[in-house]
Protein: Fungal N-terminal domain-containing protein
Amino acid sequence: MAAITHSRRILAPAGIAERFITAMNDRIDDVEHFKSIEKCLGNALDQLCYEICDAGRDDSDITRAQAIYQMLEDTKSEVEDARIHKECTMDETEAVLKKLLTSNDVDDTTKAEINKSVMLHQAYRSKCDKECQQAMSQQGEE
Structure:
């Protein structure tokens, strides 16, 4: 019976770092895309709400519009859940990148790239915090 051997490819810390840097940058792009989709769905829901509330509509139109509204609302919720999940994985990725920053096996060029990726994530977080504060202050004014 022949022995089965498995070849494993072991990446150096710099190779691991590059993969995490790419993952972080891709996730930031994905989350921005999710936010754009959420905004479009929110606008569509607002428009549909006006259509449902239009006094000139008959019951069958309203029933159809309500079904579409529910479908759009469910889709928006799914996109929001996906965005939140992606944001959580970004936090986990940042933690790994920060550990790699302290590794003696990672060269200075890679550490600079890691730092750039971490700063990009922190800038994204700061932007989100500001958007959240603005939204809360607008709700307080209403």
